[in-house]
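Progress report, Aim 2. The chain analyzed during this reporting quarter is listed below.
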Amino acid sequence: MLRGKKLLVVGDDKQVSPSAVGMEERTVIQLRETFLRAMDIANFLEPTTSLYDLASMTFPGSVVMLREHFRCVEPIIAFSSRFYPKALIPLRVPTAEERLDPPLIDVFVPGGRKLRDVNAGEADFVVGEIARLIALPEYARRTFGVISMIGDKQAKFVQERLVEAVGTEAIARHRIMCGNASTFQGQERDVIFLSLVACPKTARAQTARLMEQRFNVAMSRARDRLYLVRSVAASMLSPKDLKLAVIEHFRNPMADAVAARDKEVLDETESPFEREVGNLLLDRGYRVRPQVPVGGYRIDFVVEGEGDRRLAVELDGDRYHGPERWFEDVRRQRALERLGWTFWRCWGSHWFADRQQCLDDLLAALGRLGIEPVGGEMTPQVWTEHRNVGASAVTEQAEAEFPLAEAFDVPGSTASFAPGQKDSDAVVEVGDTVIVRFADDNRVMRFRLGAGPNGLDRGEVNAGQPIAQALLGNGLEEEVDLTVGGVDRRVIIEKITKSV
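Predicted structure tokens for the chain:
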């Protein structure tokens, strides 16, 4: 870094931070005190501090946020905007062959149960659905990913099941990848399955910044379709829980979008000018999609043809597109042209002065792009499909009426649970070694909970001490409040190693 005259650091502090794998805390402290004590940011030089974080501290006024997003379709990436100071601008609109409708599928598995950090009910659905999809011709070139939101045991379990169900050749052909949020940092797939893993008896609120990073990564890996596979209903979760935020997003992913369900296609148009042009195109057999969302805006019409050919049609009615809107319209058009879009624009005054000449020009533009009438059949836009699986007694309205928040009785399961009851194989017990990550500064500490004397510098904590008492009985990736050095700190349990 010091060899350069200028430094450009590109990163995202809202995504998964580095992990200190194999690093001893005392070794880091010793090296820092020996060589780096004179540096102003010495206390922040940790294995878990990213280069981006250090640059932000050193040059706080030099951060430029890149807001344009090109990977995911808008109903998917809209969730991640909550983590940034300004909303992301989604610029990806898939072609007709790329598009998967609906882009979001919410799968409720009421019989799913988390046991030893594995939810077999959710895994059953994921494996079965992937096997079904890859057998379809339209998914021949699609890629798939499976993300576990609690540890990596669920991902490994699904991976093993997929090898048995579809074979290694299919896994390689479809680039099927299974892991946790950290595994998928920098990755993307056409279709992602997000397994929450938690069940009614184990669901705990996930609210820390570290969890925000993981949910942000997990929710932004899918290009065209995202499955949410869950065994918990919204009524079971804390209002601050990120799991609840995800469920609510699947209920209403496009809060500002025009609801298309139960409407005629042209009812979405915003002016008589648009309806007139849309009707003329539909009458001629063209496939027309109105009010297509992209980059926080709407394209008036997208006319689609065979071979993923398409034309963006912008109709600037003088009443709705005055001079004050012109700059924004042109800026948006140029951004989309960088992505390969072709535009045809028409002012309302020109249209009403000479309809035929404008229509001929539009048809000529379609002809130059090779867009021919392929049938105007359109279906209303639906963003999310909701499914209930694994329990025939559960109805479509089950989630709204589910009594699990009070009784924790799961239809289709062989057991009823009491609130707070834990799976003993997956929680902290005396004799275990626990690795925790501090939520505020991302540091990692390792404790062994035993019967001997305290020695935090040696990683030993007596089981009767407050730190041990706070950790005992909690499971993997649960958030726990500790008092360390007289300061209240929140930690996330990252690893539990059982005593031999």
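Residues 257-263, 391-422 have pLDDT under 50 and may be disordered. The two ends are 46 Å apart (CA to CA). These observations will guide the mutagenesis work planned for the next reporting period.
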